[in-house]
Amino acid sequence: MSPMELYEEVTAQGEQVRALKTAKAEKADIDAAVKLLLKLKVDYKQMTGQDYKAGCPPSENSVVPDNGPTADGADDEDTVNPWSVSTTNAKGVDYDKLIVRFGSSKVDKELVDRIERVSGQKPHRFLRRGIFFSHRDMHQVLDAYEKHKSFYLYTGRGPSSEAMHVGHLIPFIFTKWLQDVFDIPLVIQLTDDEKYLWKDLTLEDCHRFAVENAKDIIACGFDINKTFIFSDLDYMGSLPEFYRNVVKIQKHVTFNQVKGIFGFTDSDCIGKISFPAIQAAPSFSNSFPQIFGGRHDIQCLIPCAIDQDPYFRMTRDVAPRIGYPKPALLHSTFFPALQGAQTKMSASDANSSIFLTDTPKQIKNKVNKHAFSGGKDTVEEHRKYGGNADVDVSFMYLTFFLEDDEKLEKIRQDYTSGALLTGELKKLLIETLQPMIAGHQERRKQVTDDTVKQFMTPRPLNFNI
Amino acid sequence: MSPMELYEEVTAQGEQVRALKTAKAEKADIDAAVKLLLKLKVDYKQMTGQDYKAGCPPSENSVVPDNGPTADGADDEDTVNPWSVSTTNAKGVDYDKLIVRFGSSKVDKELVDRIERVSGQKPHRFLRRGIFFSHRDMHQVLDAYEKHKSFYLYTGRGPSSEAMHVGHLIPFIFTKWLQDVFDIPLVIQLTDDEKYLWKDLTLEDCHRFAVENAKDIIACGFDINKTFIFSDLDYMGSLPEFYRNVVKIQKHVTFNQVKGIFGFTDSDCIGKISFPAIQAAPSFSNSFPQIFGGRHDIQCLIPCAIDQDPYFRMTRDVAPRIGYPKPALLHSTFFPALQGAQTKMSASDANSSIFLTDTPKQIKNKVNKHAFSGGKDTVEEHRKYGGNADVDVSFMYLTFFLEDDEKLEKIRQDYTSGALLTGELKKLLIETLQPMIAGHQERRKQVTDDTVKQFMTPRPLNFNI
């Protein structure tokens, strides 16, 4: 039961008590109803951490408090926020737990089947394999779509360097698929202002990285007639509507709230403190009058890694207060570093991931040297006991990039049984990554400065909503 | 001595001590030098409230702590910040004390004489009468001007309603004079975003007020070839350079700092917390590339009421850290409410001031009914003891608006001696205000929508810098 459903149950029970009293019912009946009401209020407080207050529905930011180690002390809390992701578990973050903590919903078989039904397309491997594992309001988006009410997509990237690695492509690969199967417009925000505020970089560098990253994004194959890519540093100064939404959001979020959501402190600069409103603004369709002609009622769907969810929890809290629909979300798991799912990929460590600029030889060397193996120490042991695919980074990467479900399952079985050796598994990954990266580099080469400029120019898009 | 001068003296004395030690001077000489150094450090701590730290010049925000009643308990602290001005003194705020508290400099006879010399014009009555009473770096501006290095003017208005009163004109009357005598460009910021954040108003209303207020401002007679008026809600979305400066400033100011300067709390919205950067940005010439062609080194002079100084103390602290010159300032006293200098003018109380839309009859009635009088209760007593011009609002208003110095002085003497009765004084004020307001209304009528649009369109201005 969600906090909102429980809230409604408490409200209904309160009305029931009033009705019984008004009707001068039996004392025993009234007492029983009051007792249930009190129990529900205790449940509500436990679930939301806040007292039930009539007329004040629960905020999405009051989620189940879930700090400290679990009762059995087996695992510590994973850290997941826009600036830091860490876990002590070799399999990576406990995503089921994260769904409970964040108050989102699981992408279950029913939802995946429904996406298949509604889109008429085989679900993307990221859906089939639980890589986009969590969502908010996805059923609502599909309900509306079935009634011929369309939606638009919004995703983004923080351009902290020129170099992007394969993990950065996940939201873009998936967003392109959504764009294709639903035939809808897409806006892509490059938060160069954010990177300036958080990093020791100049504004000029951040903006340059934004344009460079746009090239890699375009190389994913987005439809130029349906896609608008923008740098905050440019777009804020391109038309007044975007800033107007930023100010509206900034008026409805307090320092206390961003402190609670993002962990800001009094020593943080005022730019960081107000930035969340800038990441929130593209969730509202009238931030793009050139695309939506001033309409503010077009539903937004945001595919992103789950570390970005705090921004959109905040956005969803603010939306009804400024008269806009809440954006829906599809959350992905994190892409693991070569060194293992509990270590963080680092832009400064070239060996922590495969970069989009890597040569076939670099790819081969990095996988062979650095990809954390779930295999046993010796060939003999491996043959006897088999490898652990759950912690093997090569296998994880194949889960992201190998399209063939049967082949992937066979690899898993052979590796687990010991029939497939670590070296052989790595070879399979190398053979998957090399043509993928080479293809990306080929497409990126085709992206001219003029194409980038076209994608980044505010303009009408071609779609029916 | 300013905190900066004292800082430099401490630094010099420190070097002196080191030099003596290096030279193996007499112990008595070294001891004496050390003793002086320690004394200077104590002085520095007393003046700035902070310990001397080599390499850390004093911040403009560390001014003499001056809280609580004075030793003799005669007067409480005046409250002066951008949102609240109050005093218990019928003569109004103690401005000399404010200069000490804010760490600014007095506009003394020497400065007024110098402005006359440099501009070749008789100083404006606001300078002759101490209405612009405080400044920062005005001598530096004049030094540069004498060396043919020009500057630009920046002033503004928070458009909280359609109605402006005569007090709102003070910075504009004075800025127009400065523009005329120095022949320099002027930018006028209408902070409609600020009003939206602080008041219970819609964005649309705030923006409409901005355009209405622009008409009253234009009616002051600004040169369209040298003046750019902008609404934040429009200008932020007009070109990227303004937002880039806003972000630069926002990166260099922490929540702690705005808490200290403006008294923000954790319950304030993030829009308020980051707004000071938006009021700061026009202080830097590259916020207006259409005017200054991207140059960031053109000195800015800001004439404003002193309650706006906190914004610019912050701006001056940030400026050198982002490579821009500090803006200079000229601060005015406050324009008193009709009910007296210790009450606040209220836009919601039509009787608290003379509005620019008032008819001659309304002006007459308001002055006669509401203008606080320094006269005695009866004609007999008044003739015998005389009136008190220092607390008489009609006399204060004449100080602002009556150009003739001799006539003003004669009025003061006659009123003080009892020769001039309150009714007669009020009549003189009415006769001054009526044609002034009528003239303003006449000029405002000439301001077409097209003129407003021209003034508010980002464009090159006509000047030599």
Automatic annotation (TrEMBL), chains A, B:
Regions that span the bilayer: none
GO MF terms, alphabetically ordered: ATP binding; tryptophan-tRNA ligase activity
Occurrences of domain WHEP-TRS (ranges): 13-41
Region listing for Disordered, in residue ranges: 53-83
Protein keywords: Aminoacyl-tRNA synthetase, ATP-binding, Ligase, Nucleotide-binding, Phosphoprotein, Protein biosynthesis
GO CC term (a single one): cytoplasm
GO biological process: tryptophanyl-tRNA aminoacylation
InterPro entries given in the database record: aa-tRNA-synth_I_CS, aa-tRNA-synth_Ic, Rossmann-like_a/b/a_fold, Trp-tRNA-ligase, uS15_NS1_RNA-bd_sf, WHEP-TRS_dom
The EC number(s) this enzyme carries: 6.1.1.2
Family of this protein: Belongs to the class-I aminoacyl-tRNA synthetase family.
Name used for this protein in its record: Tryptophan--tRNA ligase, cytoplasmic
Lineage: Eukaryota, Metazoa, Chordata, Craniata, Vertebrata
